[in-house]
């Protein structure tokens, strides 16, 4: 559906990126600052030109260095939302929204002003100037403006970075709403793991200009976390579904690859997709089936990898259906006598999970 | 007593001519000033610093030299383009107010380009990029985003250029001479009066008139610039 495979020398960093999105979904582009995330968006939008490669959408080529195709930004039908809203200060909100509406787009989106305004809750702002809007309102208008230009793909470059926590969660639900409503592919640049966990269906991890991992959110984040924080603590991320919610004890029973996990949380409906993470320090290992202890989440698994850390710790990767990392001290390691292929019991405290629960929109 | 305020024929024509020359020099150079200001603010190209230097030349070269170069280029009989312009378009700059306006325009051009360039440079390029991704071409971007937002700077460029042409002396006198009723603007009239013995009163009167015109044009421009800025801040352009 959307394919990008490009190279571009930018200063002393070589951007080399290739991935392909098969269906309309939210794809997060993550990585450290300076990893080239924004450059990818700018190349897709046509604001910077790659040195070589291909960018195509639904078989139509935006850019192809071999065929010397380079469609200018104003004819690419991409809707962009930037970190700063970039609303035109000399126009009222309504004029801002209508700015891109005149163009004829091959997309079948056919947004109209009223729908978009009510969807984003900005109908009451139409007669105001951007200077008189709050940060969250500005970004909603910017999203509306991008939608009304009838884009075939939405490109969002850290749209929530300049907002406070409350506005952020509010906008996350708006972004999700429009993606579901219009079924657009969205490329979403962010460095916030929280945003990825709540929003994204797919993820791309960039490192020093190179696209390193691409795939499901859980896989990419787990790989990236290990890569970035090998010597510090990091989390293993899981994806699950709410199986049952017990209102009396405010606990949800979540089904995931390793079986079931119990965690207290606010009320959620059954079947809700949920992501959570477990810090490597919050995992307890035992070689015998534990009995008579307070921990409720116990899983049987097999050791698949042991990594010795320079600070006398050992990181153990265990397959319990999903893969989970645990960190133990040298003393514990020699006492437990773990080798690869050992069968081992993994225990996770519910409290360690409940803080990390993220509802996936 | 009243005769203090009664201007002579020569003074009256100097005032009218000054305003006429100032107006046309600004009007004619404005489109070019905006174009070059925009070009220098928004694009990097080969020879940009040379072009920049060339546009700034009239600011650093003595005005008499500018007048002399104009004479070489646009002299009616011996100039490079002069005869050609006259034959084809019937335009002649020699010894008339058009020549004075051309000299003023050339001398004040750098000031206008600078003001326009600075105001365009201060506009976030992100806005233009956003407009581009919304499907706007160069023309639409310029007229809906760049120009309205640069307006305060453009106005101050206009005033600077107008004030500079009011004070223009060297290039004008070299290029078109000092003929009463044809090329004699206020500074030229003042200089002519000073050559005549016992004319201090008339010299002073001309000086006061120059001051008044210059000052009121500054006030008017300040008013417009303030309004434009206020509108820009509150977003009402």
Automatic annotation (TrEMBL), chain A:
Keywords: ATP-binding, Cell inner membrane, Cell membrane, Membrane, Molybdenum, Nucleotide-binding, Transport. GO terms for cellular component: membrane. The keyword Cell inner membrane applies. GO terms for molecular function: ABC-type transporter activity; ATP binding; ATP hydrolysis activity; molybdate ion transmembrane transporter activity. SUPFAM superfamilies: MOP-like, P-loop containing nucleoside triphosphate hydrolases. It holds the Pfam family ABC_tran. PROSITE patterns: ABC_TRANSPORTER_1, ABC_TRANSPORTER_2, MOP. InterPro entries: AAA+_ATPase, ABC_SmlMolc_Importer, ABC_transporter-like_ATP-bd, ABC_transporter-like_CS, Mo/tungstate-bd_C_term_dom, ModC_ABC_ATP-bd, Mop_domain, P-loop_NTPase. PANTHER family: SPERMIDINE/PUTRESCINE IMPORT ATP-BINDING PROTEIN POTA (PTHR42781), SPERMIDINE_PUTRESCINE IMPORT ATP-BINDING PROTEIN POTA (PTHR42781:SF4). This is Vitamin B12 import ATP-binding protein BtuD. It comes from Mucispirillum schaedleri ASF457.
Automatic annotation (TrEMBL), chain B:
It is found in: Cell inner membrane; Cell membrane. SUPFAM superfamilies: MetI-like. It holds the Pfam family BPD_transp_1. It comes from the Bacteria. GO terms for molecular function: molybdate ion transmembrane transporter activity. The chain crosses the membrane at residues 20-41, 53-74, 94-113, 141-163, 202-226. One of its GO terms (cellular component) is plasma membrane. InterPro entries: MetI-like (IPR000515), MetI-like_sf (IPR035906), ModB_ABC (IPR011867). Part of the binding-protein-dependent transport system for molybdenum; probably responsible for the translocation of the substrate across the membrane. Belongs to the binding-protein-dependent transport system permease family. CysTW subfamily. This is Molybdenum transport system permease. It comes from Mucispirillum schaedleri ASF457. The gene is modB.
